[in-house]
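Entry 14. Ran structure prediction on the chain below.
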Amino acid sequence: MTIQYGYVLRRAQSRLQLERSLHPSREGLDSLRSYLKRIGPGMFQDAMVSVEAHIAAKLQVEGVFGDLQMLKGQLMKSIESRRSSGRDTGAMLQEAVSAGEVASLLLGASDVRRLLLEAAAFGALLWEAESKVPSGFRVGLSSAITATSLASPTSECKLTVTAIPSFQSLTDHAAIGDRLALVMDWAEKRSWKEDRNGAQYVRQTALVVESGLSVITGLTFTLILGGVHELYSSFWPLFLRFFPIAVFFAVGLSLKMMAVNHFQAGTIKIVGQLRLALVALASTFILSRTYSSRQWTSIASVTVFCVLFVQQKGQGRSQRGKAWKWTGLSQLFGWVCMNVIGGILAEKTYKSSAGPYYVQKVAQDLGHLLTSTVMLMAVVPRFDPGEEFHFCCQSVTIRLKAL
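Output, structure tokens:
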């Protein structure tokens, strides 16, 4: 919490300096304290949103105190072994500490003060590091911490910042997904004509290939950066932990690719903006986030325009004597809902899981590949016979023989 306090405090100071430069004549910005009071606590309650910031904070804590999960396990094991004695928990804990079974640390008032100051300084440096890394890069934040003793003046904390290209993040699902429909239009030579036709093939294979390449890339990085142990951990137990997230993302993208049969890429992109409203509502009720009135107004405006766009498209088809494309709309709405649920689960799971980000991402990609393959072989052909994998492979073979 103290690391986050330093992070938020430095971020607020940066925003205050920005507002002063934009509004030099504005009153009421004479101090950081008054600025924070004017904003309120809700604005910065989710300040540390990046995965790298949470990883760096976790590494800092582990560097000072050790592996908290291991220490907790030792504590519970020592107490459970003495449960039969019938004594109270405090006495059993004191006995375990005296026997050296549980690691303990005695802190004086000055030690606690310095510990809190170092944590706040670390959070401030963390914000400085993130603000200096350009977009398109992820922050590789590592903590080199030497703490021989908290009471020793030689304890040292150093933050090393490296900018390396991001090989994937959670936002890749949205970025890649928005471009898949455009790729389909280009690959099938589709135009704005009503009788547009193109080469038939299994669109779901695009998702399987993308997931397979992500898995190969992630496994390679994991093996290089973490070794065999972290490579194994991406299969077990992280695979089960991230599998529900992968199912929501993969099924959602499959529904989106099925909707390509009904809509152009531009229509899919516009309808996809309905995610903004659903994400805002879900994060408000599930993650307890707060949004300003201006933010809600912007979200409502985007949502209204999306609904009006869909309504105009449907009315245009009705005037031409055609029915609404309810199948395609239901597929797009299913994709939006799946994407929102997967995003909320992903945020909670990534923040609560231990281990490097790239290992967690590989675990999610493995589930994504498995789900996409099942959708390719069994699910999608049930709704669209033209997407039958074996049928399309046979058609391609016949065409090649004819050539």
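The chain has 15 helices and two strands. Will compare against last week's run tomorrow.
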